[in-house]
Design goal:
- This protein is of the alpha/beta class.
- The chain has six helices and seven strands.
- The protein has a seven-stranded mixed beta sheet, with helices on both faces.
- Helix 3 (56-66) links the parallel strand 3 and strand 4.
- The radius of gyration is 16 Å and the shape is globular.
Length: 198
Amino acid sequence: MNISFIGAGKVASSLGSLFVDAGHSVKYGVQQPNEKQLSLEQACKFGEIVCFAIPFQAMEEVLITHKDSLKNKIVIDINNVINLEDWSPIFLGENSGGEITHRLLPDSKVVKAFNTIFADTMSKDDQDFSSQKLTAFIASDDIDAATIVKNLADEIGFEGLIVDGIKNARHLEAIAHLNIAIALGGGGTNAGFKYFKK
């Protein structure tokens, strides 16, 4: 499967490496690409799945600019709604970054996923927590797209869990805020959440 990332930071490169190890073709799109990268438009066209791992503050302009190239594609919104200076949360009330992405891309299959997982746990060496897998929470109004992303999450070493519609992106983003708060309080970023069910 062709998977592209908008952004080439630590989350994108770490998650992308897991996809490559699983046999997928991965490319990265940035505003000023080098010889190994694509432009944003090229990346939007390349991916059957297009993952957004850029700051929330940049999302609206990029999505509006490239919405035609994202039609009918699975778009994974990975970002969290935070202030970049100190990782503090930006509260959107009864809204979320994932829901905003969904509204801006009405012709795409928007999925909120992987935002609750730190990049430091996105490697084969760091995924094993006493034989337990971190949960990759997944929210989307498109059940087929959500299922594809769940299967991808399972394939790369996480345990995918679909949590219903895109409205639940606000809860996924709240989980991420809590994860960040624990990390900043001394818990570190080699940590994460596991959902247990009997």
